[in-house]
Structures are given as C-alpha cells and as structure tokens.
Amino acid sequence: TRRRRSGRIEGPIPEGFRAGPLDLSKPLDNLVALLILQADLSGAPVYGGFPGKAWAWIPDEGNVLLFNTYGIGASRLAWSPEDQAFRLMHREALFYCDPKSGEVLDVWTNPLTGARLDVLHILNDPVNRVYRLKGGPLAPPYPYMTNGDRLVFQLDVLRGSEKSPMSRREYPLHAQQDLYQSGELWAISGSLDEINDPKITSASCHTSWKRVSPWLPFMEMGNRPGLMIYHSQSFKFMDGWGELPEPIRRYTEKNHPTYLEAPSTWDGLARNENTWTYSKKEIDARRAAGRDRNGS
C-alpha cells in the first residue's frame, strides 16, 4: 500500500490532538481522520486527480453525455492557533474533454444547440477552507460509516441561499436563475488501519464526487430548462504527479502550470473562486473586448 509516513508533525497542533488510534465519536479525532484522508497533517503538499463524466439532464427530452472530465487538486494543511482551526489551502482545475477521444476541449460544438463555443474550464484558485473545532459550517463531527477496514465520510453540501454572481437580467444567455444553487455529494473513504496508525500523517484516499448544477455559463443555454450532473472518482496521488495521465499533465503544464503547485500562503476565504465567479470574470472580459453575445 502506498502511504506517506512522518515521524512528527511540524508546526503547531491543537490542544488534545493525538495521532492515533482515533475515536471517531470525538469531534477532534473525527476531524483529524477526515484531514488525514484529504490532506497531510505534516503540512506537506498533497495532489490528486478525479476523472469522470458530465451529463445534460433535459426535462421531458432525455439525457446526453456532454463531456468526459478530468480534475486535479493541490492542497496544503496547517493548524492556526489564531483561528483555532485547520486551514486548508487549495486550488483546483477541472478540464472538459471530448467524450469519445478524451482530448481536452478548448472549443466545443454544443450538441443541444449547434453553437460553436469557447470552453471555460473550471479554474478555481483559491478554494480555501477553514475547519474549526466549534462553530461554522465545517465543524465536526462529520457523519461516517464503517465496513470492516473501510471508513467513509458522507458529506452532502447543498447550496441554495446565496445570490448568483451572474443574474438573469445581466446575463440572460449565460444564467438560468438568480440563485446560486448547486449540490455536491461526497463519499470520502480510506483505511481505518492507516488512519489509526500514529506514524501516518497522510492516508490513501478515494472520494466519490457527484455534482448537480445549472447549465454552465459558457454553454449559452440560460433560456432553456435542464441541469448538469457530474460523476467523478477522486484519488489522492500518494506518489505525486507521476500518477497523473500524461495527456492531462502535458495540457496543464502548457496552459495552467500553477495548478500543479500547492498553495504555500494563506489568503483567507474572501478570494475563493467558483465556476460562476470565474465565468463572470471571463465573460465580462470578453464583453469588454467585443467578443461575447449579450443575449438581448
């Protein structure tokens, strides 16, 4: 089994911390177990990849496979005595690929409309998180289940209370609604033997990830009913980027090399990026250059 080991954790640690064995009923141990799976308690960078598919769900019409997808993530973890929380510094990209050839697409013909469009890949930098021991949306304990040696954290993150960065009035071609509404369903799993080993600061991890969201802004389908369904399998790369498929690695090195590096400094949560904030920036820039339709 590939697994990173460390004799000790560098830097500050929370009061009451123990490296293992862990009692998952206790909030701190529960959080530590999750972070051993998602990150590295030693502060070393962690990399991962998540291949998958993205579907169109069209009411009363059917379902269409639009893309193969390949996502990558790079993270670094640190305990903050100031916040009394773990800080996860993270950036991620997801590339939309041809469902037959697997090639990354920069231009795409929408099979639902016939329009030829520039693709906006998911380029979220940063996507920082704060894991507080008490209070806040990410406070433990997290729901989990076990089966033999397998531990699974099941996290259902449904958003529906925030205004979208892209309103229907200003972006009628790109936005279906004014509410930023999405669902992300996570099953984060690993080995109890690894998690409970006090020598291990980063355990191997597999995550099943599903996402439901409105049409992507670059698809220019704001006036049509339907939604996107994503289904991916994510793997922590215990041997580093050598596990990344070569075509994806070449594309990333050429076009988005920053996403192969884990962030090294904390810049808070205010700058966090998502599909709609990033798309708005790109679409606004295209409008300013006279290269985007306004939907009117």
Shape descriptor reads: globular
Tell me the span between the first and last alpha carbons: 57 Å
Number of DSSP E strands: 14
Average of per-residue pLDDT values: 94
Supply the helix-strand structural class.
Answer: mainly beta
Largest sheet: 10 strands, antiparallel
Report the helical percentage.
10-25%
Task: Report the β-strand fraction as a percent range.
Answer: 35-45%
Report the radius of gyration as a whole number of Å: 20 Å
Low-confidence stretches: none
Q: Write the element-wise H/E pattern from the N-terminal end onward.
A: EHEEEEEEEEEEHEEEHH
Secondary structure tally, helices = 4
Task: Sum up the structure in keywords.
single chain; 296 residues; mainly beta; 10-stranded antiparallel sheet; two-stranded antiparallel sheet; 4 helices; 38% strand; globular
